[in-house]
Amino acid sequence: MRPARHCGALCVINCYYKTTGGAQVTYIVLDLEWSQPVCKEKTRICGTKVLQVEIIQIGAVAVTDGVISKSTFSEYVRPRYYTEIKGRIKKLTGISKNDLKDADELDKVLLRFKKWCGSFGDTLIATWGPDDIPTLKGQCDFFGYDISWMPRWFNLQPIMTRQYDIDRPQITLQAAVDITGVGEQELDFHSAINDAYYTALVLTKIKDIPKEIEWQKQVDTAHANPFISICHKSQGNVKTARMNSVPRTSLLNRYVCPICGKPATLKGRLVWVKPMNYMA
């Protein structure tokens, strides 16, 4: 069953992964739409916390054993501060201020989302891109909402591009739908429930997802700290690295790939960022 057209971009700081010892897992494919302050001066700040955006729509589709569930989740969310919908967002999503006036605020909508997720047992959240979950966590942190119950999550985008031998880790959802050949594109993109549905279709074309998730975890770890092995082996120092004068043959310019274990040598020099942190 396809979601209704009237129902309404997809769920790095840190990604979390979960193994369930062979138990059947339901993938909750999550997508969000959000509004922004109409100008920089209207940005809400509370102490050291900044409210960058406010979520205005949540859409989710469940996939169990490669089959998309008929049960979906789709709700508008009434923003507390960013109530004016920018023209660009309105045009992209089709969401107007009038659509949100009778909606509940995020905390109440999340309670219903929690209940819906709980009906599937063991779950993992899948998103298209790295932004949605950090955005959700940021807003909940600003308002003090508890989301410790939230299932762990992973980004489907780099997994899909790797399996389909695409030479870049990020492509649009529409491109992914075209490449995987999952069916006709009858629904509008940039609607939370529609994008969640399209992403769920893409997910059904991915092989050995648990293995891919574990591999992506290693990739993300390597990207987050590619010089983790040289922190203990380096004979250089912060001063020489900061001055960009480390010889190319120095141990500071060599490290072992944390994924394949093979030695690698940097082609250029290191740029000092902060103590024990360097950028190639």
Provide structural commentary.
This protein is of the alpha+beta class and 280 residues long. It has helices at residues 87-93, 97-100, 106-118, 132-143, 156-163, 173-180, 192-203, 209-224, 230-233, 238-242, and strands at 26-35, 44-46, 49-51, 54-64, 67-76, 123-127, 153-155, 254-256, 263-265, 271-274, 277-279. Strands 5-4-1-6-7 form a five-stranded mixed β-sheet, sandwiched between helices. Strands 2-3 form a two-stranded antiparallel ribbon. α6 packs parallel to α7.
Concise account of the structure shown:
With 280 residues, the protein is of the alpha+beta class.
Strand content: 15-25%
Largest sheet: 5 strands, mixed
Averaging pLDDT over every residue, what do you get?
80
Low-confidence stretches: 1-21, 228-248
Q: Estimate the global geometry from the Cα principal axes.
A: globular
What is the rounded distance between the termini?
Answer: 49 Å
Structural class: alpha+beta
Strand order of the largest sheet: 5-4-1-6-7
Helical fraction: 25-40%
Beta strands, count? 11
Key traits:
single chain, 280 residues, alpha+beta, 5-stranded mixed β-sheet, two-stranded antiparallel sheet, 10 helices, 21% strand, disordered N terminus
